Structure formats: C-alpha cells, structure tokens
Amino acid sequence: MSDQPxxxxxxxxxxxxxxxxxxxxxxxxxxxxxLEGIPESLGLTVFGFFQRGFSVVGELVSDTVASIAxxxxxxxxxxxLSAKLERYTNMERGLAxxxxxxxxxxEQLGFSQEILYQRIAARIVAKDPENLYSTITIDKGFGDxxxxxxxVIAFQDGMEGLVGHVIEVGRGVSKIVPIYDSKSFIASRLxxxxxxxxxxxxxGSPYDPLLMRFVKKRTKDEIQFGDLVVTTGYESxxxxxVAVGRxxxxxxxxxxxxxxxxxxxxxxxxxxxxxxxxxxxxVLSIGSDK
Amino acid sequence: MIRSVVFSTLxxxxxxxxxxxxxxxxxxxxxxxxxxxxxxxWVSYKNGPVEGPxxxxxxxxxxxxxxxxxxxxxxxxxxxxxxxxxxxHGSFFIDKLLLPVILGFAGTIAKALAAxxxxxxxxxxxxxxxxxxxxxxxxxxxxxxxxxxVFLLLGPLSRFxxxxxxxx
Lengths: 290, 168
Hints:
The complex is a heterodimer of chains A (290) and B (168). Chain A is built from three helices and twelve strands; from the N terminus they run H-H-H-E-E-E-E-E-E-E-E-E-E-E-E. Chain A is an alpha+beta fold. Chain A folds into two domains: 37-111, no CATH class; 117-283, Rod shape-determining protein MreC, domain 2 (Thrombin, subunit H, Beta Barrel), CATH 2.40.10.350. In chain A, strands 1-2-5-4-3-12 form a six-stranded antiparallel beta barrel. Chain A has a six-stranded antiparallel β-barrel with strand order 6-7-8-11-10-9. The model of chain A is unreliable at 283-290 (pLDDT under 50). With 168 residues, chain B is mainly alpha-helical. Chain B is built from eight helices and no strands. The longest helix of chain B has 25 residues, at 98-122. The two termini of chain B are 13 Å apart. Classes of the chains: A alpha+beta (290), B mainly alpha (168).
C-alpha cells in the first residue's frame, strides 16, 4: 500500500520516453508533408544567431594564432608590394584606355555577364552538425535578399563552380544544400564535343565523386577523362553553363541503355570559405517565400 | 529534475553549435564525431528514464533546425538513444576507459538503428546510415575514442547535469 505512489511515479517516468518518441514522429510527419515551413525558419533565425557567435569565437582564436605568423610575412610583403605598386602605377594609365575600349565593345555586342545575374557574397559560418545530412550555413539571409531555391556558386583557383542551392532562409543566415548531397540533382551536360546531357547527383560526401546518370550509351567513345561538365539551365534553379565537375571515370554496364559517369567536383568543398548567392532575373521557380 | 534537464539541454545545444562550427578541422574523410551523442548517453545513463530523453528530445529539435533533416528526426533519434542508455541506468560502474568506449560505440550503432527505423517508415524523406558505408564506422570509432575524455570532463559537472536524487 505504502509503495503505491512510487509505482505511479515509476510508471510516469517510463512514459516520458514513449511520449517524446511519439511527439518526434508527429513532428517528422508534419514537416515531411511540408505543411509548415515557419517553425524551421524561425528556429534557424534564433539558433543561427548563436551558431554565428560560435563561428566568430572559433575564428577569433584561430585568427589570433595565425595572425602572429602572418605579421612577419606581411612585413616582407610590404617591401615587395611597394616596389610592385610603383610599376603598376605606370601600367594603370594604359589600363584605363583598355577598360574604356572594352566597355564600348561590350555595349556593341549587347552582352554583359553583370546584367545576367547579381551576386550576394556570403561567408560560410557552419556546416551540418550531423554526418547524415550535408548542409552549409552562410551568414546572409532574408534581410540581405537571399531567397529559397537561389543557386549558389563559388570561385576557386580561377574557376567558377556550382556549390548548391538555398533550401531555407532565416533573417541573417541561410542553409544551402550542396551538390554532393545525395538528394541533390542537377540537369547537366558535357561542355565540349557532343554536349551530351545527363543528371548529376551527389553521394552524400564531398570526398565521393559526383555521379552523372542517364547519359546516352552511344556517346561513350567520345567522352574523355577530364572533360568539363556544366549545368544546362533547363527548368532548373541553376543558371546555364556553370561548371559542376570533370569526368573521372565512365561506367558502362552491358544491361543498361545508358552509362554512368563519375565526376570530380570542380570545387574542393573542404577549402571553400566564401560563396556567392546568385540572383537570376528570369528564374520562375524562385518565389517570395522565405 | 527540471534543473538537470535545462542544463543538459543547454550543454547539448552548445555541443551542436561546436560540432557545426569548429569540427570541420577534425573531420576524418569528411566525418566528424558526434559529441552530442556521447554527452547524451552520459546524461541518460546517470539520470534514468526522464531527464535524458527529455534533454535529448529538446536538443534534437534544435539540431533539426540547424540541419537539413525534417523537424523531429534528431528529436526521435536522441530520445530513442537516451531511452536505451537510461535502461542501463545504474547497472554498471563506469570506469575510466572500457565502458565509455563501449557506450560511445554502441550509442552510435543505436543511433544508426533509430535512423534506419525512421527510414523504414518515412522512406527517402529521411536519411539513414548504410552498414556498408564508411561514415557509420568512422563515426562509431571516433565517438568510442572520444567518449572516455568526454565522460571525464562531464564528471565535475555532475551537480548541474545529474538530478539531486541520483547524486544522493
């Protein structure tokens, strides 16, 4: 009789986990049906603020250590650059004339890349906390003009490459799903030769090659190692002709009507620090939703 | 009880931030350790069936917000792992090396099983580990290796993370 309350307590304690598991399942059910995007967006805004704080602290520590060594380098560079500056000042006069001429020619051709799309520069502040998913968080959000489904590019070693697209936007941060995510698919084509088309998908890790599927089998002899693969721009959130990867290996299976091509991503994702969110002017799929 | 849930949740959320911002440099083949999971196992093992799952659920929701996973995915996984760890509550004496290593490894496997269970229900709308993929095994080994250190660091925080009744 006396141990009745403790039994009730015990039963109550044991009920906590099942209740929470059911609550979790309810959350997944609601969110996978995409009934609500608001809780995620609000949460991202709040947690993104703290995440940026952690990122800043981490960078502050590593930057302080790095800057000590860098100061020495800077002193040497200063002397070197002073000499260069003198040389470049002389060159600048000639450059101004060339720039003016280039501008005139561009106008005559009616072509300017700047007119095609604007870019929002952003810094990567965090990556997905889990190994199962592969999002990238940037420090620009709704307030900076970033919208859901906007494509994201980056420059590395002088090459422009595709990073991914925006999947969620908070006030000052946004989440990007990179092209190596296993749920990412990009309509692409070989840049040269046959211009063969296919669908590029990731395998979940930046260390695994991208996979270009549904490539016509008859083109297999024309595909060379190192060939560049770019976006097609068809009904896609991605602009056309942005580099995706280079051919690494061609997989031909006798029983398949198409071939698979393994690609090395054009960008080394472990080294990317800054990206550009592209604001295409004529992409219909980009709505006003956060 | 509420105090330990609050402190545990805050610590787990802080671990999530650390994982997402600072751990890029310690990734092995792109795989980072799951410190949150190790902390959660310790909290659940020490507290029993209420505090661990509650803190796991709340921190899991925060993790879902920061990740591309559907809301509730990590909340479910954390609650399930915490409930499993809580079943062992008080069964063993936690030594400094062997048991933390076993718990870190087994906890990662339990997490993979929970993700697999969700995959069976929700299909491709959620991600799951593959038994034949390196990610699961690198993460399990990483968590197992770090568990003794994490458990050691959590010891002095017992008065914040463990309910009073468990501390005696």
